[in-house]
Structure formats: C-alpha cells, structure tokens
Amino acid sequence: MSGTHGSSILKQPGQVWAVAFASVIAFMGIGLVDPILPAIAADLDASPTEAELLFTSYLLITGLAMLVTSFVSSRLGPKRTLLIGLGLIVVFALAAALSGDVEAVIGFRAGWGLGNALFISTALATIVGAASGGTSSAIVLYEAALGLGIAIGPLLGGLLGGISWRGPFFGTATLMAIGFIAIAVLLRTDADEPRERTRLSAPLRALGRPALALLAVTALFYNIGFFVLLAYTPFPLGFDAMGIGLTFFGWGVGLAITSVWVAPLLTARARRTTVLAVVLPLLAVDLLVAAVTVGSPAALVACVVVGGLLLGVLNTVLTESVMEATDLPRSVASSAYSAVRFIGGAVAPPLATVLADSVSESMPYVVAAASVLIAALVVLFGRRALARIDDGSESTLTEAEAITIGDAA
C-alpha cells in the first residue's frame, strides 16, 4: 500500500477519528462471538448447531442487506446511513446481551448484521471524503482501524466472555454507543453533499455479468472453508473463552497482515487468477491438516493461524478482482458479490456441527477443503471469462475497498 508520513496520518479532523474509531468496533464484530460459542451452548442449554446459527443469522442478513445498502446510502447520505447502522448495532447487541434463550440471541444477531452492513458499506467513502493529507493518508488510517478490529475482536470476546457470555455483547453495545455519539457530533451534515442515486435492482442485474457471477460462485464455495475454520473450530479446540480468544487473535493478526501488505505484493508480481489458483489449494491443504489433527489442540491452533494468513490474501485478491471484473460502479459490483458470498458463510457453521455430530469431528474440515477446491476449479475453468481481472494494477483506493469488503464477513 502507499506509504505516508505518520504526522500527516495523525493530523485528521475529528470526524475522521470518529468514523475510524467506530470502524475498529464494527470490525471487531467479525470474531467477537467466536470465543463464547461453547459458553452460549452450555449456559443457554443449546446444541452446538443452535449456537452456530449466531453466525448464520448475522451473515445471511448482512448479505441480503448488501443488496440495498448502496440504494439506501445514495438517498439518505453517509452520515444518516452510518448513524442508522450504528444505532441498529447498539440496540441489537444490547438486546442479545439481555436475552434468556438462544433463539432470541440468533434473532438479535440478524439485526446486528443489518446494522453492520449499513455501516461498513459507508465508512470507507466517508473517511476518504473527510480526511486531510490526501487519499493515501485516509486509506492507511482506515486499514489500521480495520486490522485492529479484526485482531482485537476475538481477544476482547475472550476477555469479556471469561466473565459471562453476555459480556462481549454489552461491550459492543457500549463502544458502539460512544461511536454513535462521536459521529453524531463530529461528522458534517449530509444536506450539502451531492449524491448519485443507485437503482434498487442494480446489484441483482449485475450478477448477469459472467465474470462477476463466476467470482461470486468462487467466493460462495471459498466462504464455506473460511467459516468452517472460524466458526466450527472453537468446539473441537476445547479451550475456555480466553484460550479461544487468543487463538483467533493470532488468526486475526495473520489475516490483517496478509490482506493489507502481502496480497498487494503478490498481485504486483503475478496475475490475480494465478494467485487465487495457488492460494485456494493451499487453504484446502490447511483444512485437510486440521481434519487429520483434529484431536490435537496445538495442531488446530497452528492450522487456524496459517489459515488466517491464507484467508487474508484470498479476501483481498477476490474482492480486487470483483472491482475490476466489470465496468459497473464498484458499490454495485461489491454489493452483488457480497450477497452471494455471504450465503456460503451463513450455511457453513451449522453444516459443520451437523456433520460433526452425524459423521465425525474431522468431517467438517474435509467438506470445507472440498468446497475450497471447487472454488479453485471455478477460477481455473473460468480464466477466459476472468481475463479482465488480470489487466492493469490496482489503485490504492480499490485495494482498500477490496480489503474492507473482503474482511467484512
């Protein structure tokens, strides 16, 4: 990514810091629930499959909401869209914390997903528009916020989850409420901002483009592998909330490092389709190793951390590819892609626990590896249709958009 002097990054208006802070908290939500899944299952007398539905409801609604976020933000403006998103997260995170049964928590996580979709689809453009020191400074700041959120989420979930499974939800509600107040006070009004309105049907129509459809199908199968590793692994690990939190802190750090720094280096030296065709099979191998060593917590921890390194590359390269696959507006292309992609993420967690209960603990990883290999085959056999994604190099802004949407799940 483009470098910039630390002083220019730090000299930002208050509104930029307000959105950056809220971005850290929003991206913490990716791994926040992970360490408390076993505790929720135990304390609410729920099966592992029911606990996994916390991911399913969140991801399914996030994906569906992505189909309308560009329509909404193009009419309401960024400030109102950000505030609505943050407000929904506060309300539903608090409601989840106060719930007495797992069905209620599942439902409230769905509302959380709606709020998160509205927020993350608007935050990057807001920071870029408000930052001083040029686009590069703004994007470095945003990437720092994103990386912090991804890494800290599981750690905070483990710390607060060690007190109670309700702790991470209360913590998120409190921090998001602070972010809401900061944005309400510091971010400029939408009244004078020119906006080009997006049609409601635009993302669905975008999936008629062959290149975008191929990438969406690739991401659907890839995301099954992603979320088996993320959402199922806490159960065979057998750690307490803090142990799971530390494990996925390592996962988040690896993912953040490779998504921000390694992926751009690889795509500067090789075609995107080549990077995908190499790294997807490596992820499949990592998942197969997890299947073979499922009885060894130390080996599973290693697979999680290595998986994070590979996932960071794949997230960024896939979404960079989406940005370049068509001449559609990037917000429309990313909305269409994300909606399909999150279906894989929504299906994977409960599928994994059903396979574990009915076959064996290792079977979820075997199925995940097979799914990732299918994603690799889609890329290989679709290379002719994907030729456009190998042309040219990414702008810094496009890379940041790719990182954002790639890690939003």
UniProtKB/TrEMBL annotation:
Residues 15-387 form the Major facilitator superfamily (MFS) profile domain. InterPro entries: MFS, MFS_dom, MFS_trans_sf, Tet-R_TetA/multi-R_MdtG-like, YfmO-like. It is a multi-pass membrane protein. One of its GO terms (cellular component) is plasma membrane. It is found in: Cell membrane. GO terms for molecular function: transmembrane transporter activity. PROSITE patterns: MFS. Its main location: membrane. Pfam families: MFS_1 (PF07690). SUPFAM superfamilies: MFS general substrate transporter (SSF103473). The chain crosses the membrane at residues 16-41, 53-74, 81-100, 112-132, 139-163, 169-189, 210-232, 244-266, 273-292, 298-318, 339-356, 362-381. Keywords: Membrane, Transmembrane, Transmembrane helix. The keyword S-adenosyl-L-methionine does not apply. The keyword Transmembrane applies. This is Putative MFS family arabinose efflux permease. It comes from Diaminobutyricimonas aerilata.
